Amino acid sequence: MKSILSVRFCLSTLAFIGLLQLDRFGAAAVSLQPQIPSVASFSPNSDDSGFVLSASTQIVVDSTFQSSGSPSLIDYAKTFRDDLISLSGFTSLPQVQAGSLEDSHTSPVIFLTLGATDHNYLSGLATDEGYDFVVSSQSYIIKGSGAIGAWWGTRTLLQQVALTTESSDGIILAAGSGSDTPGWEVRGFMLDAARHWFEPSFLADLCIYASFFKLQTFHIHASDNLWDQNFISGPDWRKTNQNETWTKDEFAVLQATCSARGITIIPEVDTPGHSLPITKWKPELGIPKSPDLLNLSHPDTIPTIKAIWDEVLPWFESAEVSIGADEYDASLANDYISFVNDMSQYISQKSGKSIRIWGTNEPSSTLSINMNVTIQHWDFPGDSIPVQLMERGYRVINSEQQFLYLDGKTSDAGQFPVELDQDLMWSGAPDGGGWAPNIFTEHDSSNNTSPQNPLLRGSIMAIWNDWGNNATTPLEIYYQLARSLAVFAEKTWAGSGVRDTQLTRDQFNSIYDTLNAAAPGQNLNRAVAPQPNNILFQYPTVSQPQMSSFDSVGPPYTLKFTIKPTSSSEISVPLFDGTSMLVPYDGGVIFSGTDSKLHVQSLAFEDPTTRIRYPLPYELPTDVYTTVEIHATRNYTYALIDGNTYWWTTELDIWGEYMKPANMSFAAPSRFIRAEGFNGELRNVSLVLGS
């Protein structure tokens, strides 16, 4: 072996987990590095120097199984190749081939095949998500129990690449054999996309990021309304948030992108509560003074709901959908239960799909929800007690809010953290061993269940957007989700106290930043390649529209410029007939990019996704030069002007009870300079990484 692998861990961590072992010649042999989620088992082969990944490495798919699965094994392999290029930088990597391991190969081979056996969830249920892998100097063999299992095996390989420093020989991966299986079948996250608008491209990028950590469900909460009881029960309730949606084609592309990376979208259309999107359209279907609740006894209500599902069911590729069904009027329990059972039967007959509902206490002594409905528990003990549900035979998904809820930007009286509480995730259980999908309460073990309970399907964490579009930018939502998804992925794959190989908190922290930065196929961080002195661009004068090399730059950054806006209140706009006309002029846009725009008027940042502007409490003087220095971090953005500090903020309406100010964080609007209609002078423009 020509060189010793350099890894991104401190020496004490290396000593603790034994990453380096001596081979028979006394040289250091490479061993598997901890990753997220942890691998169930790995036996190193110290007699082998390891698999050398290089630009000539071939990816070969077993021709016997190349069409197996949906996506197929060869489809997964092609996506894997793209990701491998992204992580390794080997842009000339050969195209994926179908063949056999016995074929003549000119270089070491990554071989994807099927046939792995004895892969079961902790419940004992067989799964196609498992995989075995055998690594030697000549081959890296990934054998899935299904095509999706082989896909998860490629994520393991990619993470090892990301955590390995390239030597003069290439990227050396540990020789040996391993096996891995997730603990639970449902491992996912929910995004409230009803009370905050998100472009499909952002949702797709979230799928791609989550897949890197082997999550497999994206629950999209697609219909809901902002909550302000005084407003909802008042005369102007139909003026609440605007109804927005994606087109069928946009949703199809989103599903295809997520599916290509092993993630299933579970769509939710929430009724009979949270239903203002319907009653704004048909107000006669609402309960008087509670129009967010559908009147299930009205003869047109259930036919209307079924008609909505008739329209959208053909859009959805998943075997399950969520009908929401939470927080309805407890006095109408029998109506509610009858509705859920009716919808379960109807959706099954129309599409063959089963349904999920949020865990809700239905105080009825005569009716009960059908056992074929999965209960997604969220509120212990207020709305459901999961162990009692499972004792009665219901299948349960754990979304307990104490552990797994976030809210965009902030929450009511600090109820939920900004990101998943790391203390709770690593030690928040009755035995102090950390959260896992079988944990519903922190202090009372009698209300938790066994990891092996066959009725415990898994877990979904949730990020809500209770305060609407103006609370956050999509980038801020990603910042809340990024670490949360990674630690959640570890706990839903490996559990807590189940495997000897599961990560410790220190191990997780030592590798998370590297893996977050390496996650392929997306750039949610809005990261840019290193630049000399961290200077992305620098222009002494910008007299004409200028385009830079950077679409958008994530914080931290410093954007500095000197500006002299014109005092004109009108500008001349040319018309097609050769004449022109005067139109009102608000100063125009100084900078714009994928994620933000900066206007002259009030130096307002605009989120192009929602078209909401966030003004600064400052107005630029006209016909004089002013130097503006904008500093941004993930938590805030502020401007230094003439020795004064001004902050970009927003006002959040908390349940209609009080207003709460909050800081805003923006990506740098870095693509266009003198972007849209700016009429003035612009000098000394620079964008530098770091705040």
TrEMBL record:
One of its GO terms (biological process) is carbohydrate metabolic process. Keywords: Glycosidase, Hydrolase, Signal. The active site is at E327. It catalyses: Hydrolysis of terminal non-reducing N-acetyl-D-hexosamine residues in N-acetyl-beta-D-hexosaminides. SUPFAM superfamilies: (Trans)glycosidases, beta-N-acetylhexosaminidase-like domain. Its EC number is 3.2.1.52. Residues 186-494 form the Glycoside hydrolase family 20 catalytic domain. GO terms for molecular function: beta-N-acetylhexosaminidase activity. The keyword Signal applies. The keyword Nuclease does not apply. Residues 36-161 form the Beta-hexosaminidase bacterial type N-terminal domain. Belongs to the glycosyl hydrolase 20 family. This is beta-N-acetylhexosaminidase.
